[in-house]
Give the backbone structure.
Amino acid sequence: MAPADQTRKTASWDSGKATSGDSSTAASGVSDDIASRLLSWYDVHHRELPWRITPIEHARGVRPDPYRIWLSEVMLQQTTVEAVKAYFKVFVEKWPDVEALAAAPTEDVMKAWAGLGYYSRARNLKACADLVAARGGRFPDTETGLRELPGIGAYTSAAITAIAFDRPAAVVDGNVERVISRLFSITTPLSEAKPEIRAHVERMVPGTRPGDFAQAMMDLGATICTPRRPRCMLCPLREDCSAVVSGDPEHFPVRLPKADKPQRHGAAFVAVRADGAILLRKRAEKGLLGGMTEVPTTGWTARIDGATTEAAAPFPADWRHAGRIAHVFTHFALELEVFHAHIKGDAADGHFWSLAHEISGEALPTVMKKAIEAAIPGATKSRRHTVQRGPMTEIRHIVFDIGRVLIHYDPNIPFSRLIPDAEERKWFFDNVCTHDWNIEQDRGRTWEEAEALLIADHPDHAENIRGFRRHWHEMVPHAYDDSVAIMVGLIESGHDVTMLTNFASDTLAEARERFDFLNRPRGVTISGEIGMIKPDRGIYDHHIAAFGLEPAATLFIDDSQKNVDGAKAAGWQSVLFTDAKALQADLERHGIAT
Ligand code: SF4
């Protein structure tokens, strides 16, 4: 039998290894093949993102709104999809079209952008909106025309051209770089390989559906050809991929060792008035965090340290050290000593007071939010809660007991697809769910062993139980953007979110690497104890005590019907998690906008 790698049709044609016939014809044939396989995969597995239209809508003649595509692409520069979703929602609600954004005060746009980082993007966004609105509100539909607008570079112009206008353009983001580097086993370091990567993409872009092709490449990189542990078994391009033949796709893209970032130091001063107002000032328009709001800080920059003691405070007060915060910018890492004082009197020149209920709406960059939070925990959380009073008690705490769901389960594949029959699904949640697997795993059993036990207990449902494990294993760990986005959205809008999980420490480390929100100083609490206490069902009382929760004002979200019932019995409001869309509807039913 021939070794597997000899039987595969790999992308090595492009490395000059095509041996018969006209190589350009062969190349174009393989490219067409790749595009068509990718589009077929995308038709089924595309991510649903709020700025997108689906392939079905596209086939029906629906076209995306260039304003939404432009807005999302600018937001996505340097930011993850999870982080962008919540901001995108706020922007399109406030400013549904480019004229509305152009008419908005810059200050309001900066405030809405606060927390998304890379603030020059927000200034360029506004300048671009102004220009497009002044030209009649239509975005140019070519890369050249788009590149003349503020804040639109090579990548963004290509993305808008392809996605918004369905015109052929080589869209190459980090995901696409990774996929191409692997498909063609590019050994040149990534920083130098970009022209080669672009040339490959240019050859692959199909004449029809170039917009969907661009999005399919991005989705493949985001969900299958991931930086670590690519899911080659599920990949539609597996047969074309030379890296998978090598057995070490993670080796690509090849990167040069990173230079260490310089470490800078400084101090931040959080002055508070008796009514809780915090003293703020605006940064200079130009430069790092230009135009954003800050608490007084010492003069650190990317190149120089600032003073780090209370002696550098902008005015005398009883300054107390409140801790140290760390923040990493693109070119340097910063540590700020935070000082806190209660003061009386007027704001000094160039400073202003922001009342407690206004703080969350200020244009505070993340580093400044961290400084304020170090001094006054919870101060930057929204007081304008999205919770509405209704027939139910107002929800003040949200507890997710779906840690494993977030890590292992793809909400784009809802339980209703894993277990299509509604009766069976109900039975599954009532009797098996993942909870029982978790318990058996906590007892040191493998999934297979747990499955055998479950089948022994429920022989009539053996097929369903086997099918569930098979699906679970085939799909893990996959895209769970929607559920993560819901959690992040809740945290961003100031909800007190606790995430309960029995992650093993290595899984947790991986999760922390993948999801920024797990590293936030506040907003997410991770309980490592739950796995141990779950079987004795002391979970509810334990968490009420451990996290200071008020049962009636707590919404408990779990993927186990048994746990949901237990929480209800303990007086919690509870929701059964089945998929991201259903969760969103349930949250809204409880008066919580997501
Ligand atoms: S086969 Fe694997 S390495 Fe190759 S493109 Fe697909 S996911 Fe990436």
The radius of gyration is 26 Å. The longest strand covers residues 263-272. The chain has a mean pLDDT of 78. Residues 179, 182-183, 224-225, 230, 232, 235, 237-238, 241, 243-244, 249 surround iron/sulfur cluster (CB under 6 Å).
